Amino acid sequence: MMDLPLEIMTEATFEWCPGFCVYLPTWPSTLKAWDLREDLARVYELETGTPRGFRYPSPIVVINLAREIDALSLLPSAFYDLSRYSYTQIFEPREESPLCDDLSTPHDSRCHLSLLDIQKLGMGKEASSHAITSLIQSMTSPAHPHPHHPTSNTHRRNLSASGGRNRTNAICTTASACRSDFLELAQLATQHYIFDREKGCADPLYVAEELGQLKSAETTDGEDCVACARSLEAWAVRERERLWKTIPTWFRLDSS
After folding, report:
1. Sign of dihedral through CA atoms 87, 61, 247, 56?
2. Which of the residues 2, 27, 54, 148 could staple to 77 if both were Cys, CB 3.0 to 4.6 A apart?
3. In terms of Cα–Cα distance, which of 15, 35, 19 is closest to 203?
C-alpha cells in the first residue's frame, strides 16, 4: 500500500475510517500512472504469490471514501478497477476477497456500493465489454486505418522521416498476406476474450496492450511485416489513450 496523498488527507478522512487513513492505493488520473500501478501489482503477485488485487485496498472502499470526502478524482480508476471483477465477486464477496479490506467484512457497509453507484457500475461494465468487442473488430474493419495498408499516411510518414532508408521496414509490401494475418489474429482474440473469457476479458486497457503485441516488431522474423507490426503497436498506444479518456463516460461520472 501507499501513503495517502497529503492533498486529500482531510479531517473527514480520519473520522471516516480511522486506522485506514494513512493508506490509500494509487487511483491515478493518468494512463501512465495507471500502468505503473499495474506493474507494481504484478510484481507484488510474483513476489508474494498473492493475487494482485490485495496489493491495494478494495475499490469499493475507495469509492465510498471518495464520496465521503468529495475526492471525486479517485472515482474513474476505482470504478474501472472494480469493473474488472465479476458480479459474483462484487456482490457476494468472501471474507478473504480483495474487495474487503483488512478492516472490514462482507457485512460491513464499506463493502457495499450505494444504489446509484451500482447503476453506474453496471453501465460501466457494459461499456467496457463493448469496448473490447470494438477493439477487436477495429483490427479488421475497413472503417479504420489498417496497419497493413501500404499507402497509409503512417507508412508514408515513416518513410519520409527515415529519409527513404530501411524501405522494406517502412512500407508493407505484402498487403494480402497481412490482411489475412490480421483476420486470423482478430478471430483468435475473439475466441480468447469474448468466448473463452480468459485473462483480461473485462479489462480493455489490458486487451489493447496485448493486441498491440500480437505482431511485435522486436520479435518478427523475415516472414513477418515489420511495418505492420510497428503500426499495430502505435495503434494500440492510441487506442489505450482513447479508452482511458472515455472511462468517466462509461460510468457516468461526468455528472457523478
Report:
1. negative
2. 27
3. 35
The closest of 75, 73, 100 to 85, measured between CA atoms, is 100
Nearest CA-CA partner of 84 in 171, 166, 226, 199: 199
- List phi, psi (to 5°) of 235: -60, -45
Q: Alpha-carbon distance 80 to 45, whole Å?
A: 20
How many alpha carbons lie under 13 Å from residue 192 in its C-beta half-sphere? Answer: 14
pLDDT digit string (tens) for 23-56? 454 789 999 999 999 999 999 999 999 988 888 8
Helix/strand/coil for 153 = helix
Q: What is the 3-state secondary structure (H, E, C) of 71-126?
A: CHHHHHHHHHHHHCCCHHHHHCCCCCCCCCCCCCCCCCHHHCCCHHHHHHHHHHHH
Q: What is the largest CA-CA distance in the chain?
A: 66
Percentage, residues of the chain above pLDDT 90:
40
Which pTM was predicted?
0.78
Encode burial over 40-71: b for 16+ CB neighbours within 10 A, e otherwise: bbeebeeeeeeebbbbbbbbbbbbbbbbebeb
Closest CA to 116 of 254, 251, 242, 14: 251
Q: What are the residue ranges spanned by the domains of the chain?
A: 6-113, 129-247
- Cβ-based burial of 23 (10 A; exposed 0-12, middle 13-18, buried ≥19): middle
Report, in angstroms and rounded to the nearest whole number, the Rg of the chain calculated over CA atoms: 21
Distance, in Å, from the CA atom of 182 to the CA atom of 232, rounded to the nearest integer, reads: 10
